[in-house]
Amino acid sequence: MNATAADRELEQELRERRPTLSVVIPVYNEEENVEPLCEELFRVLEELGRPYEVVIADDGSTDRTVSILTGLQSRYPRLRLITLRRHMGQTAALSAGIDHARGDVIVTMDGDRQNDPADIPRLLEKLAEGYDVVSGWRRDRKDPFWRRRLPSAIANWIISRLSGVYLHDYGCTLKAYRRDVLRDVRLYGEMHRFVPIYAAWQGARVVELPVNHRPRTRGKSKYGLGRTFRVVLDLVLLKFLDRYGQRPMHLFGGFGLISIGLGLVAFAVAVYFKLARLGWLTALGIPESAGKDFVETPLPLLVVLFVLTGVLSILMGLLAEMVMRTYYEAQGKPAYLVREVLEVGQPAREERK
Q1: 238, exposed or middle or buried, with CB in 10 Å at 0-12, 13-18, 19+?
Q2: 121 or 195: which carries more pLDDT confidence?
Q3: How far is residue 93's CA from residue 85's CA, in Å, rounded to a whole number?
Q4: Three-state SS across the chain?
Q5: What is the per-residue pLDDT for 89?
Q6: Whole-number mean pLDDT of the chain?
Q7: CA 37 – CA 56 distance, rounded (Å)
């Protein structure tokens, strides 16, 4: 066997060893759930008949979660454990798990056993139909109505209207992604739920799939009503980055010009009142009683307020432009996205930048 054939055989062997599917699970103080979760999850994954791995990212748990998972690794060799130095939130833990995942397809799910591992094959089947993101929809959600389901429904409605990507359930962690969709995604705040929006804005094909949802039987929920408001604020940030990330001057400069325009209108009205008070407009049929001195109206203050606000907004836009240009040039990020390159006599190859 020559060196070339040996290299090809080694490459094929490494390819077969490398997992094609990664299941990423963020956990925090789930000592009562991780063992039954692993038992159920690995049973489902073994039936798929494809190379896989399970990446569990522990978000600084203070209970026995890490020690239990460490003990489970001898039983489940394909279990990988990522531990964060301190509690940093679900998005940070999920991002750590995704960064360490090696599969071409990444499935994310919660560690509280409310997501059903039996839905994973259905997600993969839908992904195989040509979609880039398959988002789970907890149509029959097993959570308290007033504290969880109603705020979630309101948040989902607001998110869909603001983003233009209409999904019923952004909060469902059970999702399947093609790896290239997540390649340049950086998650902050509560933005893990917005990955389908980001992907859709980049031209990815997104679909929603109803999934099973089970009531929490062990442990305690870590989410409260206040999270809904943080999610909406994160969406506003995401919307800004999408529409004005490469041209912030259009937003700040536009607002500044409108503000200066309002200042000019206030100045014109103030001058009109002054001229009328001096009797310079009586020839036009406007009596002196219709006029006012500058000190009798708030118009001079409005002129100063609007003009200053406008000038500062334009200056802020210039500063934002310099920051964003430095950001793109320092990282070598192109200002475009290529889906594929077509050449005569060659098969199409996909490129995402």
Answers
A1: buried
A2: 121
A3: 11
A4: CCHHHHHHHHHHHHHHHCCCEEEEEEECCCCCCHHHHHHHHHHHHHCCCCCEEEEEEECCCCCCHHHHHHHHCCCCCCEEEEECCCCCCHHHHHHHHHHHCCCCEEEECCCCCCECHHHHHHHHHHHCCCCCEEEEECCCCCCCHHHHHHHHHHHHHHHHHHHCCCCCCCCCCCEEEEHHHHCCCCCCCCHHHHHHHHHHHCCCCEEEEECCECCCCCCCCCCCCHHHHHHHHHHHHHHHHHHHCCCHHHHHHHHHHHHHHHHHHHHHHHHHHHHHHCCCCHHHCCCHHHCCCHHHCCHHHHHHHHHHHHHHHHHHHHHHHHHHHHHHHHHCCCCCCCCEEEECCEEEEECCC
A5: 83
A6: 82
A7: 11
| 213, β-bridge pairs | 115
**Tens digits of residue pLDDT in 75-94:** 999 999 999 988 888 888 88
For the chain, what is the radius of gyration of the CA atoms?
28
Tokens 């531990």 — which residue? 83
The pLDDT value given to residue 352: 46
Nearest residue to 181 (alpha-carbon basis) of 149, 204, 209, 150: 204
Residue 233: pLDDT band (50, 70, 90) is: confident
Contact assessment for residue 300 and residue 270, using Cβ atoms and an 8 Å cutoff: yes
**Quick one: which of 195, 305, 322 has its CA closest to 260?**
305
Per-residue model confidence (pLDDT) at position 210: 92
Residue 164 banded pLDDT, cuts 50, 70, 90: confident
pLDDT digits (tens, 9 = 90+) for 244-263: 777 888 889 999 999 999 99
- To which residue do tokens 């949802």 refer? 213
Dihedral pair phi/psi, residue 52, rounded to 5°: -145, 170
Mean pLDDT over residues 290-304, rounded? Answer: 85
